[in-house]
Structures are given as structure tokens and as C-alpha cells.
From TrEMBL:
One of its GO terms (biological process) is glutamine biosynthetic process. SMART domains: Gln-synt_C. Residues 85-179 form the GS beta-grasp domain. This is Glutamine synthetase type III. It comes from the Bacteria. SUPFAM superfamilies: Glutamine synthetase/guanido kinase (SSF55931).
């Protein structure tokens, strides 16, 4: 048992759940205690400054520098009183990770004394090196200047450094010297602003009191947890974030006993710990549970404004990784870290709310409210129908490519699930011009059990196989990858809905100008929209082969390759949409296309290199050593005259040789394909070669390696096995 794998197993098996203590008895006493929230601002700012800041947040206005100085002073006072020694602009560059550069809260005077210092200029703007972050050709390497700018709509927060100090983190946008967005946040804010304006204008037809529409988001985060020692015993997990090899264990998820089962003690302690820290940071995480696959779990927050929800999800992922280290665990956000069991997604539950407290996607029994609900529902359907390929592009990545359509996640075909009652309501609208929506809370299950209260039935069922499903008062975009920054998807979704609502307003205004009655004109437009887009509605099993065939007959796209999907971003109609809504200009879209292609290439390249290294330096060498042991045994049997007894061993020897030859041949072919791809200058063509000629070898090599895992002695196998990784206690 000198094998590194067994040492890691010994360490993992000796660990127990850590004790976690709540900061205080009541959540309300510490929730948001690490955030510079409204309550703190009201207490520390002058009434004039507080009013200007809150007005700027609600109207997307600017904060002048004099007010910024007062806010900076209040932030510094608050942060240092809680142990902060540094501050940073916390931003989300196009690397997929968050970024920060810490500066101390002091300066040196001419006579050498240290004085605390944090001015409004430092709060509003900082200057990281823009050439060192992905920019898709927007900046040359020698053109280094870029700017981060304070986003006051997302509260500043304190991050515990884990070594006694804290850092004040200021959520910020990131732009180049020439003004182009180099981050996820800037286009998202523009898309949210575009939707606010478009949706508010449509709401005015129904209620003049509605002056603002706020898109909301609740991202459910799926993830795997493995022991830290076992993680570091798997080079592929360390370098690629997923296991490139691994035979399925005898027991996986087939018993369906892990989902909502008892949470393992070590994992539960980790969950409790990061939830307490999340609460301090104002993140409203409320739900925790086991997911379907062994070793897989989920955390879900309550709904928040989209920009804040995206910030919180990025912060939550970072926090989970840090807290897991304390518990000797590792969190895996890769979409498909293990073959043969479910991968992980980030279910984006999206809706729209008004300043009057109305959820625009909540059904109603009142005629006027029903018409408003159907107006927004049908416009969302049309937006998704007309821009399905663009929405597909927003979730494209190397990791998600392993997951989509793998009989566990939504397929690469974008479709919408509404449920029986809503579909019937839209059919009635189309055929009879009648607007009738039944709220689900009017229907109860009768159980016939006196001690059990009546159960309320929703107006739609749930469809786990639909990528874009209506779930009662919101849409759940289930196809987003677990490692993704939701800003990319939310930018596209809010932009296409804003664009569609603008078109609806133009269509309606044209009819009203002809003297048509408003309600009748709205119904006629919705009928036309529904008739032209209902092919995207699907109520059945999205995993089935029949749906793939049916979708093809309907003319729906099935874009399986990420490079192909990403190409949708730079189509003329996509560029025009982003420009029309003011979300991104052509240069910004094209740079993102280049960046995402490069990320795809690099991820597949890393996986390929890891696979080649493990196959040749770990698996093949181990198999050959084991083969020598078997050959010696077979030789001894033959010398003893036991030829028949030696035959099964000879068969194993031949199998090992056959598989080793196949592995070596395919690894060499994969390396040659990689060299060929690397010599291609055009990024799009290079990505396509990685997607086909390089990646095509993955499953072949994996099959041979996983078969060797079944043959080679367990004592000799160098990699931690799935049965050891997945069933953490």
C-alpha cells in the first residue's frame, strides 16, 4: 500500500466533520453585517449624500465626486472598525474568475508617517493592467491601461482573508482605456437597463403607476464535493477540473437514493459554515440538499435583482472554494467532473417585477391582469424563439459541451415548457381570441386522509428535461453550466426580451394609431406572435431520440458544438441586436467571441495534455508492469505443465497488449491533431479542429483506459477510483 492513492485514501477515511458555531443565535443579528448596505449608509452618510446615492442606484444615474468623497470616508470608517486593512475593486473579467488588487488604507507623509487614506477618487476608479486580462484583440500587449469603476447598485462587502485581516471589496465594472467593456458586469447592466425601459413602456398600457421594472434572478448552484487528499491524488481533477478517466462504480445513482437523502456529516458541516459566511455578506442562501448523483449537492438563494444575484453567485462560488479547504474538502464546479453520473448546472430562475410589487410573469384571474401576464409571457416566448441560437451561444463552453444532451441535462435544442393549463390558455387565445388563465392555487389535491391538509397544486408541472421551463411565476433556464458566470446568459436573455418588447410596442402603437381598441389590438398581436412561435413549445421528454427527430421536423436548431454555437454571436443579426439595445457594440461582441473561442481551445488543450500524460506515464506503465507479473505467472504454470490453467492468464496478457497499443496509437494521433490545430492561425478554424480532430480521440482513449482499470490489480492502479471519490461521508 505504498501507492499514493492508498495514502490519500487513508487520510480521507480518517477525517471527521468539523464543529461549526453560529455567529449569533438569530440570523437577523448577523445577516448583512459584512456589507455596506442601506442601513449602514443611512447611519453614516449625511441625509443629502444618502439620498443622492440611493437615487443614483434606482435611476442608474451618476454620483458626483464630492458625494463620492463622503461615501469613501464612511466606507473606510465602517470597514476599518470591523478589522479591514485593505480595499480593492472587485470585478469580473472575462477569465471566468473574479479579480482583485488589494491596496492598504494608508499613505506615507513627507515626514515618513503613516496616515489612513481612502478618497472618493480611489472609490470611484482604479487602474488594473488591461492587457493582462482577456480582451479579444481590443488591446495590444503594450497598451496596458484599463479602468475599474465603482458599481453602487451592488453593495461593498468585507472579505475575510483568513489570516486575521479583512479587505473592503467594491463591486466594479472593468473597461479598456478606449471605453470598451472587458468584463461581464458592464454589458449586463446595460441589458438590465434596456429591459427596464422596454418593459416599463409596455406596462404603461396597463398601469400608469408602473415606472420601473426590475428583472430578478435566483441561480440554483449545483456542485460536487470530494475529499481534499483524494482531489490532489487525481492530476486530472487538479489540472482540468474533471476526471478524464474512471470506470463507473458498481453503484452509482441507479438506486435513486442520494437525491434529497441525508446529507453526509462532513458535507453538512461545510454547508453550514459557508452559509453563515454567506449570510454575513448579505447573500440569502436558503436551500441545501443532496442532488441526484453521489457526491453532488445544491445550494439555492432567494430571488434578488439580477445584477446583485450574479455578483452574489460569483462571490458564493469563491467563498465555497475557500471554506471547503477549511474542511479538507474540494468543491468541483465543472459541468461534468465524472462520467456515468449526472453533471452539474446552474439553474437560472428569472422573472420581472415592478415598482408596484407586481410579478409580470405571475398568472392572474382578473381579465386586465391576465392580459398583461399573457403579453409578457408571449413576448418572452417570441424572444426565445427568434433568438434561440443566440441563447444557446450564451451557455456554450468546453465544460457544458460534455453535459448538454447527456440524458441528464437539457439538450442542446432550445425549447420552452409551459405546462398543460398555460398551453391551453394560449391555444384558446389563438383559436377563440379568449384570454383565460387559471391560477394554480384554485386547484387542490384531495388525498382522502383526514390528518393531512389539502395540498395546493401549481398551474404547471415541472419538466426537468426542458432547457427553458415556466415554473409557476418565472422561467427556469436549466441549461446554464455550473461553472459559468450567469452574467453572460442574463445579458443575452434580458437583451433579447428588451428587443422583443420594443418591437411589440411598435406593433401596438401602429395599430393604435389606426384607431383600433387597445385590448383587441393586443390580443390580435399576441395571437400572431403565438401562431408564429408555438413550434418552440414542447411538453415531453427532452432526453428522447424522438424529440431530436421532432425538433428537426419543426426546424429547431440542435447545435452540439461550442465553436459552432459561439459563432452565433458574430452573425449580423446578433450584432445588430446588441447594438440596437445599446448592450454592446460590434467590437465588444467580436472580442468576446474571440475570448470564448480561446478559452474553449485552451480548456480542450489542457484536457488533451492531461489525458496523454496520464495515459502514457501512469496507465500504460502500470499496465505493462502488471503484465510482466502475469507473464511470469503464466510462464511458471507452463513450466509446471499446467498449460490449460495458463490460458486465461494469456488471454488477459493479450487484452492488455491490445489496449496498450490502442492507447499509444490514439495518444500519438491526438498529439498530431493538436499540433495541426495549433498551426492554424484563424481562431475559429482552430477551435473547430480542437472540437473534432483533437476531442474525437477522448472517448476512444478513455474507453481503453477504463477497460484496463477492470483488468489491472486494484493494488497497482494509480488513480483514485470513482467508488472512492464519490461516496464521501
Amino acid at each position: 500500500m505504498s501507492n499514493f492513492r492508498f495514502k490519500a485514501l487513508e487520510i480521507a477515511q480518517s477525517r471527521h466533520a468539523m464543529q461549526v458555531t453560529a455567529p449569533t443565535e438569530r440570523v437577523g443579528d448577523f445577516f448583512g453585517s459584512y456589507t455596506f448596505n442601506n442601513e449602514v449608509m443611512r447611519a453614516l452618510l449625511s441625509p443629502e449624500a444618502y439620498l443622492k446615492v440611493t437615487e443614483a442606484i434606482s435611476t442608474n444615474g451618476q454620483i458626483d465626486r464630492t458625494i463620492a468623497d463622503e461615501v469613501a470616508g464612511a466606507m473606510k470608517s465602517w470597514a476599518t472598525s470591523k478589522g479591514a486593512t485593505h480595499y480593492t475593486h472587485w470585478f469580473q473579467p472575462l477569465t471566468g474568475e473574479t479579480a482583485e488588487k488589494h491596496d492598504a488604507f494608508f499613505d506615507i507623509t513627507l515626514d515618513g508617517k503613516a496616515v489612513e487614506k481612502f478618497k472618493g477618487s480611489a472609490l470611484v476608479q482604479q487602474e488594473p493592467d488591461a492587457s493582462s486580462f482577456p480582451n479579444g484583440g481590443l488591446r495590444n500587449t503594450f497598451e496596458a491601461r484599463g479602468y475599474t469603476g465603482w458599481d453602487p447598485s451592488s453593495p461593498a462587502f468585507l472579505m475575510d482573508n483568513g489570516a486575521g485581516g479583512k479587505t473592503l471589496c467594491i463591486p466594479s465594472v472593468f473597461i479598456s482605456y478606449t471605453g470598451e467593456a472587458l468584463d461581464y458586469k458592464t454589458p449586463l447592466l446595460k441589458a438590465l437597463n434596456a429591459l427596464d425601459k422596454a418593459a416599463t413602456a409596455v406596462c404603461q398600457y396597463f398601469d400608469r403607476n408602473i415606472t420601473k421594472v426590475t428583472p430578478t434572478l435566483g441561480p440554483e448552484q449545483e456542485y460536487f464535493v470530494v475529499d481534499r487528499a483524494l482531489f490532489y491524488a487525481r492530476p486530472d481533477l487538479v489540472l482540468a477540473g474533471r476526471t478524464v478517466f474512471g470506470h463507473s462504480p458498481a453503484r452509482g445513482q441507479q438506486l435513486e437514493d442520494h437525491y434529497f437523502g441525508s446529507i453526509p456529516p462532513r458535507v453538512n458541516a461545510f454547508m453550514v459554515d459557508f452559509e453563515f459566511e454567506s449570510m454575513k455578506l448579505g447573500m440569502p442562501v436558503r436551500t441545501r440538499h443532496n442532488e441526484v448523483a453521489p457526491g453532488q449537492f445544491e445550494v439555492a438563494p432567494t430571488f434578488e435583482e439580477v445584477n446583485l444575484a450574479v455578483d452574489h453567485n460569483a462571490l458564493l462560488m469563491d467563498l465555497m472554494e475557500k471554506i471547503s479547504e477549511k474542511h479538507n474538502l474540494k468543491v468541483l464546479f465543472h459541468e461534468k467532473p465524472f462520467a456515468g453520473v449526472n453533471g452539474s448546472g446552474k439553474h437560472n430562475n428569472w422573472s420581472m417585477g415592478t415598482n408596484t410589487g407586481v410579478n409580470l410573469l405571475a398568472p392572474s384571474t382578473k381579465p386586465k391582469e391576465s392580459l398583461r401576464f399573457l403579453t409578457f409571457l408571449v413576448n418572452v416566448i417570441k424572444a426565445v424563439h427568434d433568438n434561440a441560437d443566440l441563447l444557446r451561444a450564451s451557455i456554450a463552453s468546453a465544460g457544458n459541451e460534455h453535459r448538454l444532451g447527456a440524458n441528464e441535462a437539457p439538450p442542446a435544442i432550445v425549447s420552452i415548457f409551459l405546462g398543460e393549463s398555460l398551453t391551453q390558455a394560449l391555444n384558446d387565445l389563438e383559436v377563440k381570441s379568449e384570454v383565460t388563465v387559471n391560477k394554480g392555487d384554485n386547484v387542490y389535491y384531495k388525498l382522502g386522509l383526514n390528518r393531512i391538509p389539502s395540498l395546493m397544486r401549481d398551474n404547471t408541472d415541472r419538466n426537468r428535461t426542458s432547457p427553458f421551463a415556466f415554473t409557476g411565476n418565472k422561467f427556469e433556464f436549466r441549461a446554464v453550466g455550473s461553472a459559468a458566470n450567469s452574467a453572460s446568459t442574463m445579458t443575452v436573455l434580458n437583451a433579447i426580451v428588451a428587443d422583443q418588447l420594443n418591437k411589440f410596442k411598435m406593433d401596438l402603437d401602429a395599430r393604435l394609431a389606426k384607431g383600433e381598441k387597445k385590448e383587441l389590438a393586443i390580443v390580435d398581436i399576441l395571437k400572431e406572435y403565438y401562431t408564429n412561435t408555438k413550434r418552440i413549445l414542447f411538453e415531453g421528454n427532452g432526453y428522447s431520440d424522438e424529440w431530436v427527430e421532432e425538433a428537426d421536423r419543426r426546424g429547431l436548431s440542435n447545435i452540439k458544438s461550442s465553436p459552432e454555437a459561439l459563432g452565433i454571436f458574430v452573425k449580423p443579426e446578433s450584432l445588430a441586436l446588441f447594438e440596437r439595445t445599446g448592450v454592446m457594440n460590434h467590437a465588444e461582441v467580436e472580442s468576446r467571441y474571440e475570448i470564448e473561442l480561446e478559452k474553449y481551445i485552451k480548456n480542450v488543450q489542457i484536457e488533451s495534455r492531461v489525458m496523454g500524460d496520464l495515459a502514457m506515464n501512469h496507465i500504460v506503465s502500470t499496465a505493462l508492469k502488471y503484465q510482466n507479473k502475469l507473464a511470469e505467472t503464466a510462464r511458471n504454470l507452463v513450466e509446471l505443465g499446467m498449460n490449460a490453467e495458463a490460458e486465461p492468464i494469456k488471454a488477459i496478457l493479450r487484452e492488455i497488449s491490445t489496449r496498450v497499443i490502442a492507447i499509444k496509437r490514439n495518444v500519438e494521433s491526438m498529439v498530431e491533431a493538436r499540433k495541426k490545430a495549433n498551426n492554424v492561425i484563424d481562431t475559429s478554424d482552430r477551435a473547430k479542429l480542437y472540437s473534432t480532430e483533437v476531442k474525437d480521440h477522448f472517448d476512444i482513449i478513455r474507453y481503453e483506459v477504463d477497460k484496463l482499470e477492470e483488468v489491472v490489480d486494484d493494488e497497482d492502479w494509480p488513480l483514485v477510483k470513482y467508488r472512492e471519490l464519490l461516496f464521501i461521508k
